[in-house]
């Protein structure tokens, strides 16, 4: 993984975590503000590395999750990538647009209200997710893959939330990639959050901005 990409995400994550943890002393015990039942939409821009340079793509990301009891959640997502044309000096190269689908299952730490000596247990959550993926270019055959992602969610009393992720993704016929991700969310009205984030691996770096709506207290098998 390019050292510049790792250092950029690591520095961003460190700054966000330090900032997010500052006001924790003001937290009072209450039901958890973290929910694994949500829907989100984001605009994304991605830079893919290719021999001799790189190519840019943009698109839309749709993602949703629903809690399954106390410890589990199901998730699904759809991403579109529309590639720019590249002038190589030997002519213009057009890359096929790609839609990527994902569906999976996750496990997370229980979201309990604050208790004596565990005041912030409801404001921190760890998770592990397994996704089955399908990449569908507008020309050629689609490709299946999978992703395993672990991460943390931290939320403080000023309505900021930090999500950090580390994972592995692999598609049929291609080498697997380690991935890093970080995002910052801000709840500007109840349950509705604005977000900005970055994900990076050996082959690409993706930035996105969007919104997430949480359905607190909603789930299956509760």
Descriptive notes:
The chain is mainly beta and 222 residues long. It has one domain (3-35, 42-214): Porin. It has one helix at residues 3-21; strands at residues 38-50, 53-68, 72-83, 86-87, 92-93, 98-108, 124-137, 143-155, 160-171, 177-189, 192-200, 204-214, 219-220. The strands form 2 sheets. The protein has a 10-stranded antiparallel barrel with strand order 1-2-3-6-7-8-9-10-11-12. Strands 4-5 form a two-stranded antiparallel ribbon. The N and C termini lie far apart (41 Å). Mean pLDDT is 82; it is low at 18-29 and 116-120.
Mean pLDDT rating: 82
Helix amount: under 10%
- Tell me the overall shape: globular
C-alpha-based Rg, rounded: 19 Å
| Helix run count | 1
Strand % is: over 45%
Order of secondary-structure elements = HEEEEEEEEEEEEE
CATH architecture tag: Beta Barrel
CATH topology: Porin
């Amino acid at each position: 993984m390019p050292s510049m990409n790792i250092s950029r995400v690591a520095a961003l994550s460190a700054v966000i975590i330090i900032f997010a943890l500052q006001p924790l002393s003001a937290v009072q015990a209450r039901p958890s503000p973290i929910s694994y039942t949500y829907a989100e939409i984001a605009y994304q821009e991605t830079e893919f590395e290719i021999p001799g340079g790189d190519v840019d793509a943009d698109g839309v990301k749709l993602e949703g999750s629903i809690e399954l009891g106390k410890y589990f959640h199901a998730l699904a997502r759809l991403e579109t990538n529309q590639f720019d044309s590249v002038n190589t000096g030997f002519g213009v190269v057009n890359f096929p647009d790609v839609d990527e689908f994902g569906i999976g299952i996750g496990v997370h730490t229980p979201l309990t209200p604050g208790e004596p000596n565990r005041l912030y247990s409801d404001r921190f959550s760890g998770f592990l997710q397994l996704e089955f993926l399908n990449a569908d270019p507008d020309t050629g055959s689609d490709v299946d893959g999978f992703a395993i992602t672990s991460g943390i969610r931290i939320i403080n009393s000023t309505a900021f939330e930090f999500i950090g992720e580390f994972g592995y993704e692999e598609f049929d016929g291609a080498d697997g990639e380690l991935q890093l991700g970080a995002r910052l969310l801000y709840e500007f009205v109840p349950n509705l959050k604005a977000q900005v984030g970055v994900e990076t691996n050996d082959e690409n770096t993706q930035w996105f901005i969007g919104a997430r709506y949480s359905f607190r207290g909603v789930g299956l098998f509760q």
